[in-house]
Structure formats: C-alpha cells, structure tokens
Amino acid sequence: GGAAGLAMVLVVVMGVSGSGKTTVGSRLAAKLGWKFYDADDYHSPENKKKMAEGVPLNDEDRIPWLCALHDILRREDSCRQDAILACSALKKMYRCVLVSGASAIESNQPEQPGENAALKILFVHLDGPIDIIAGRLKKRRGHFMPSELLKSQFDTLEPPSAPENFITVSLEKSLPEIVLEIQRAIFQG
Fold first, then answer.
1. How would you write the pLDDT of the chain (189 residues) with one tens digit per residue?
2. Given 10, 33, 141, 153, which is the most exposed site by the fewest CB atoms within 10 A?
3. Mapping DSSP to helix (H, G, I), strand (E, B) and coil, where does residue 127 land?
4. What are the residues whose beta carbons fall under 8 Å from the beta carbon of 138, sequence distance 6 or more?
5. Do 68 and 87 form a contact (C-beta atoms < 8 A)?
C-alpha cells in the first residue's frame, strides 16, 4: 500500500564494473531527492593505488572499505535519511558486511542487543552479459578496465539469492526503464 512508501529505504545498486551502478544510482537519487553515495569514493589510498595498477582487490582490502560503507548507511538510517549507494558488492559476504557491519565476519563476538540490528537494505543487481559490459567499458573515456579484471569480477560475482532482499534488473534496458523498475520495487515492496 501507500504507507509502505513512507518507510526508510536504503538501496544498494550493485554489479560488476561497467554495469552502470553509478549512472543508475545517481539518476535514481536525483529523481527521488535522496542522498547518493558512490562506494568507489571511499576506498583507501592503498586500494586506489592497487586498482590503478590493475591489481584485483582481495577480501582483506575490501572488508575495511565495506565496514566504512556500512557505517555511512547506519548513520543515514539513524537519521531516517533515505540513501542510495552504488557498490559492486559482488559476494554474499560483502553484502552481509554492508547489512551488519563487522559483526557479519566476527561471528564469535557476543551481540549487543539492539546495537547492531541488521540494516534493511534493498540490493538492486544490475545484471547483463559480459560482452555487453566489456563493450560499454571500452567506450568509457578515462576509465581503464582490463578485460582480465572484468573477467575476475564475473568470477567473483555471487548473484543475490533468497533470503537476501534484492531485485535483479537487466542492464540492457534503457536508463529510464531501469530507474522506473527500481522505483516500483521500492514503493511497492
């Protein structure tokens, strides 16, 4: 119903490099008047250096980054601020960290009740064939993504599945169609 649209919403637009996360996320945020964050802006200088050299990031590189992103989402949630984050979030474990923070990994820690309640995040997976994404990356000026690195992202990708809270949207649709499809999911979900 209509009331569902009043609930606090945190959306993570996810997918491999070149799937259009930043474009889709920023367009959706602009349309809804929500805050937009691009996860790539929050990488450490070490991570940025690795990426510039074409070195794939490993879990140790990504966990502190994902924890920082979780903290941003938690802050927005506590201020009742709707927010959209563009983030690759390729593995289920990465999405768990976005939802639950470091406690997703350190499961041996006693939970403080209420302190680390999982965030309610809708993951939007922009999904499409590798050749289409490779073609898009080739057209990007100033964005160098070696094809091996794109392949490594596809190898890493664990598409979201139940019981995760997600929708899958084809990145072959037009930008307005994609944005509309996500909006429907947010306000009818």
1. 344 445 678 999 999 989 999 999 999 999 999 999 999 999 999 999 998 887 888 999 999 999 999 999 999 999 999 999 999 999 999 999 999 998 888 765 555 555 567 899 999 999 999 999 998 888 876 666 677 778 888 999 999 999 999 999 999 999 999 999 999 999 886
2. 141
3. strand
4. none
5. no
